[in-house]
Write a structure and sequence with these properties.
9 strands; alpha/beta; globular; hydrolase; EC 3.1.3.71; magnesium ion binding; binds D-malate
């Protein structure tokens, strides 16, 4: 496990990266792909996202700054807005504060999967099938580890170990222990800084949605600048 701001090209090169931003960017990406989006195109800045909209067809612009809708964008970073009627057959150009940046920073990995609690089991299966070392990239908040991403990493590791024994780093073991000792995920995640931010904004429904574990079989994969379902 590593934190997005500590990812160097060398630390992920040749490995399978699983990028996690449970609250909420990777939960949004999984939902968009699950509801039939043709692709999700992650962008690190609002300007880039607006430029990309001009170049692509059938674009829906989504994302957040300070967890709120960006001026001129179609959707915020609330997974419940990514319905089939909003995103099916569309290219979702997405920019978020930490999540899309974490994806960009992982781009030298051999494979890059998008993980969250919602697809923890499925993404674990995909990572194990790759038969390489796996690095879970905790998108975090402002360069720091976030509790929600840390326990999600623990869930993914637990599901990976169900399939195949593995050698774990100390930080990976710690995430696993935290997951195994907090099966009531909310009792732990509600202590996370960003949980409080989203709750204050009245986004409890998003929290309920993002905290559901292993309810999706979708494994989005980032390749050549775009995210699609991995087969
Ligand atoms: C991010 O990428 O920083 C988050 O997804 C923020 C959010 O919850 O909207």
């Amino acid at each position: 496990i590593t934190c997005a701001d500590h990812v160097s090209p060398e630390s992920v090169k040749g490995n399978t990266a699983v990028v996690v931003d449970t609250l909420r960017a990777t939960s949004v990406i999984i939902t968009a792909i699950s509801h039939g989006a043709k692709s999700v195109v992650p962008m690190t800045s609002v300007e880039e996202a607006l430029e990309t909209k001009k170049k692509l067809e059938n674009v829906v612009l989504g994302g957040e700054r300070k967890a709120r809708l960006i001026d001129g964008f179609d959707l915020s970073n609330s997974p419940k807005e990514y319905t089939a009627s909003a995103v099916a057959e569309k290219n979702v150009v997405l920019t978020t504060t930490n999540g899309t940046k974490a994806i960009a920073r992982s781009s030298s990995a051999a494979r890059i999967f998008i993980g969250a609690l919602r697809n923890a089991r499925a993404v674990a299966e995909a990572a194990v099938a790759e038969e390489r070392d796996a690095v879970i990239v905790n998108a975090g908040t402002g360069g720091e580890f976030s509790m929600d991403d840390f326990i999600t990493a623990g869930a993914i590791i637990a599901h990976m170990l169900e399939l195949k024994p593995a050698e774990l780093t100390d930080v990976a073991k710690t995430a696993l222990i935290i997951y195994e000792t907090h099966r009531d995920l909310r009792s732990y995640i509600q202590e996370a800084h960003h949980y409080g931010v989203l709750e204050e904004l009245g986004l409890s429904e998003d929290l309920d949605f993002c905290l559901q574990e292993s309810v999706e079989d979708i494994v989005p994969e980032y390749k050549n600048g775009i995210i699609k379902q991995h087969f």
